TrEMBL record:
<keyword id="KW-0812">Transmembrane</keyword>
<keyword id="KW-1133">Transmembrane helix</keyword>
<dbReference type="Pfam" id="PF04341">
    <property type="entry name" value="DUF485"/>
</dbReference>
<protein>
    <submittedName>
        <fullName>DUF485 domain-containing protein</fullName>
    </submittedName>
</protein>
<keyword id="KW-0472">Membrane</keyword>
<feature type="transmembrane region" description="Helical">
    <location>
        <begin position="75"/>
        <end position="96"/>
    </location>
</feature>
<dbReference type="InterPro" id="IPR007436">
    <property type="entry name" value="DUF485"/>
</dbReference>
<feature type="transmembrane region" description="Helical">
    <location>
        <begin position="41"/>
        <end position="63"/>
    </location>
</feature>
Length: 130
């Protein structure tokens, strides 16, 4: 009997899935829908943000006169664009949280619900060894 099997388990704790369970989950249509939904959000926003960031860098390097234009008082276009980088990052984080809560979490729950029984062959091997 191993030390792991004698330790009391929490009533709500799940045993770790074995490799076959991971492969079965990865091949399931529920997991494919989850991955597709994640990619539908993450890829376009990543491209948009990197484009916005590179625009800021390129304008800072090559359009110095434009970036030096005063907007209000001593605040210039470069400072406004720089601060908007933080604003856009925050807005993307908020949008991702909402999207995750509304779309990804229900899909992830479907993956867990449709997952094969955990423990699989490893649990059976441990029982045979006892």
């Amino acid at each position: 009997m191993s030390a792991e099997s004698t330790a009391p388990q929490e009533p709500h704790a799940r045993p770790e899935p074995d490799e076959a369970a991971y492969l079965a989950i990865g091949a399931s249509p529920e997991f494919a829908r989850l991955r597709a939904a994640f990619r539908r959000f993450v890829f376009p926003l990543t491209v948009a943000f990197l484009t916005w960031y590179l625009l800021y860098v390129v304008l800072s390097a090559y359009a110095r006169d434009f970036m030096a234009e005063k907007v209000v008082g001593e605040i210039n276009v470069a400072l406004v664009f720089g601060l908007l980088q933080f604003v856009s990052t925050f807005l993307i984080a908020v949008a991702y949280e909402r999207y995750s809560r509304r779309t990804l979490e229900p899909l992830a729950a479907g993956v867990v619900t449709g997952a094969p029984a955990t423990g699989g062959a490893r649990a059976a091997d441990e029982e045979d060894a006892e």
